[in-house]
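Subject: design request, 660 residues
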């Protein structure tokens, strides 16, 4: 239903629910304010706002204070931020939903969102883009006979910055003599389908099939392999300058010349042997030919991170088996840096007394070492950063053995003159030039939160990956909103340069010595990992690696799912079909097959159909379930899966080539 049709469908005279009526303290007869239901389940954006002890968002703007649209104050309503979803069980007791829609005045005229209203899994209203400079809109929807109403605010595909949006004066008209009262509802927490476990004692090789490095610079790669110990590694056709430790599978040295070499990896153990081809590419700017995989300290430790905790994370990366499945990076986020010495050289603070020793410890395990800084004078939490010392700091990072730099915009906002592209690109170009001179390969992660179309110019300034959005919390609305919002960015992703929708939010997190499990349900976690794999997104974990349960380990170490993420073709998935709450995404793979994700964003189990016509296929093709690692048979015309609420299925369609 269009906005115009929804407004024409009003059963009451227009003045019964006009903007002035929605600003009052009391609802019209036989109506109720939406905020009277309780809105704890609309918390979005990763930050819970409590003001004077009141429930978050009810009768308050997202940042606190009254709900104000273009100078008009509303005593009732819900303040939120894109992305958000609120599902109401109407109990078939309501006849109309009415609200004023618009960005709160705290957005200062910025921001852009869309408002959607869904009834029983069918979208009945979509406002299109509403910007901060636009007049608020009166929305009125006939909900007679509907059971579930879902209210959705999206970021309009351009990131959630300043997207503080209100359901101002939101109310429900009740049917005469209604026996039941609407209530906030949640999606069904259905049992997750089984996923395969890595239990085979036979040797197997995993991880990326292609890696790159600059000739003459230090080379480090741990061959990811599983199987009953002890394992013995060997390589045929290894490029000059490199060698492998046969006991650990760690390749070190430095490439002597540019070029592409296909090498044959072999691992032997008590239960047999396995071989796999790895392509090594030598040349300038050949890093991150597949999305980085590893761990970052922020979601679990935040400002509590220490040298000891990073060492323990590296220990657990190996002990848990994650490293044996391709997770390589151990990264420190904010709060590690200390003051500069007499020569202006950056140092670690008291919690990081010897950064080189820490890097050496990580490297000894075959893992890679990452740090965090900012182009501004300070980091987000006020620690010394790189402004004015870029070349010096890049050399310091190289001396410490840094392999990955996350470069976060933060305080550079106080330096930048305007938001023209040359100005916002400038600090990233400066650090890129410094990294090129530092003598070490350092993967360059641009953290600019999706501002100023960073995905368009990220490759031009030498970024290997760039954040496409705000920080990702363990909230379904944000995982779904951000993840499914990446479709339009696919054209800018590829080997060496990736869209980054932020760290994974699975496992136990919380910046605490006693972290809590993710707030995502098991099905939502399966969707999260499926979607990030399909998006060719970096898979950087933010959880406590010492407390991984069986489900989380199975979720993160399914090699057939990881192979989709690490596919050397590097094509990001695109949305092929969308019907109400269901979506089908597809991604071509290097071996000629197609990875297909079947997603159910709705509140209950439903059938999702992948049609061959949408995938560019004809005839009959084999289908393999990647989560269960099981062949499902031959299918002609389409494949159908029953997918739980907020769940996903991931299959591979076609018969692929066996190797490069």
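Subject: RE: design request

Done. Sequence follows.
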């Amino acid at each position: 239903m269009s906005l115009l049709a929804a407004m024409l469908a009003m059963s009451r005279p227009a003045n019964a629910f006009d903007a002035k009526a929605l600003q009052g303290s009391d609802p019209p007869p036989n109506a109720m304010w939406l905020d009277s239901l309780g809105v704890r389940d609309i918390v979005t954006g990763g930050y819970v706002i409590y003001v004077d002890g009141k429930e978050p968002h009810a009768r308050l703007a997202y940042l606190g204070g009254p709900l104000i649209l273009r100078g008009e104050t509303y005593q009732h309503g819900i303040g939120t931020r894109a992305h958000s979803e609120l599902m109401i069980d109407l109990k078939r007791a309501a006849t109309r939903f009415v609200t004023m829609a618009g960005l709160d005045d705290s957005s200062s005229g910025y921001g852009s969102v869309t408002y959607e209203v869904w009834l029983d899994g069918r979208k009945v209203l979509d406002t299109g883009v509403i910007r901060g400079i636009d007049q608020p809109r009166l929305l009125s929807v006939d909900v007679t006979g509907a059971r579930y109403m879902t209210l959705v605010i999206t970021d309009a595909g351009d990131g959630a910055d300043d997207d503080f949006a209100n359901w101002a004066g939101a109310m429900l008209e009740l049917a005469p003599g209604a026996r039941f009262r609407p209530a906030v509802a949640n999606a069904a927490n259905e049992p997750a389908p089984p996923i395969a476990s890595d239990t085979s004692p036979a040797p197997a090789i995993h991880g990326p099939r292609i890696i790159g490095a600059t000739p003459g610079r230090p080379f480090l790669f741990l061959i990811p392999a599983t199987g009953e110990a002890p394992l013995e590694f060997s390589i045929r056709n290894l490029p000059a300058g490199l060698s492998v430790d046969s006991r650990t599978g760690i390749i070190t040295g430095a490439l002597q010349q540019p070029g592409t070499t296909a090498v044959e990896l072999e691992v032997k153990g008590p239960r047999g042997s396995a071989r796999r081809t790895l392509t090594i590419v030598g040349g300038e700017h050949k890093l991150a030919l597949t999305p980085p995989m590893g761990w970052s300290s922020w979601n679990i430790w935040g400002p509590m991170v220490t040298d000891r905790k990073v060492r323990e994370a590296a220990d657990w990366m190996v002990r848990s088996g994650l490293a044996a499945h391709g997770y390589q990076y151990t990264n420190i986020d904010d709060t590690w840096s200390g003051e500069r010495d007499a020569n202006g050289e950056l140092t670690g603070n008291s919690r990081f007394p010897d950064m080189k020793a820490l890097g050496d410890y990580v490297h000894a395990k075959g893992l890679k070492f990452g740090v965090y800084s900012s182009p501004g004078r300070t980091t987000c939490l006020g620690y010394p950063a790189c402004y004015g010392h870029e070349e010096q700091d890049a050399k310091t990072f190289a001396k410490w053995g840094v392999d990955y730099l996350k470069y976060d915009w933060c305080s550079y906002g106080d330096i930048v003159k305007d938001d023209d592209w040359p100005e916002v690109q400038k600090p990233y170009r400066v650090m890129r030039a410094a990294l090129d001179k530092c003598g070490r390969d350092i993967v360059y992660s641009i953290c600019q939160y999706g501002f100023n179309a960073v995905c368009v110019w990220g490759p031009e300034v030498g970024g290997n990956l760039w954040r496409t959005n705000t920080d990702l919390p363990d909230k379904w609305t944000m995982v779904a909103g951000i993840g499914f919002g990446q479709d339009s960015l696919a054209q800018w992703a590829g080997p060496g340069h990736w869209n980054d929708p932020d760290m994974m939010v699975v496992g136990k997190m919380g910046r605490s010595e006693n972290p809590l499990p993710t707030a995502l349900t098991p099905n939502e976690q399966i969707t999260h990992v499926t979607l990030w794999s399909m998006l060719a997104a970096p898979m950087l974990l933010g959880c406590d690696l010492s407390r991984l349960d069986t489900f989380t380990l199975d979720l993160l170490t399914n090699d057939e799912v990881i192979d989709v993420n690490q596919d050397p073709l590097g094509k990001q998935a695109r949305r092929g079909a969308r019907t109400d709450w269901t979506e089908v995404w597809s991604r071509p793979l290097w071996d000629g097959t197609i990875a297909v994700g079947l997603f159910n964003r709705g509140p209950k189990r439903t059938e999702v159909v992948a049609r061959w016509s949408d995938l560019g296929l004809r005839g009959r093709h084999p289908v393999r379930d990647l989560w269960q690692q099981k062949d499902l048979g031959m299918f002609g015309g389409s494949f159908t899966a029953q997918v739980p609420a907020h769940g996903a299925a991931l299959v591979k369609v076609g018969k692929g080539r066996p190797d490069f």
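The radius of gyration is 26 Å.
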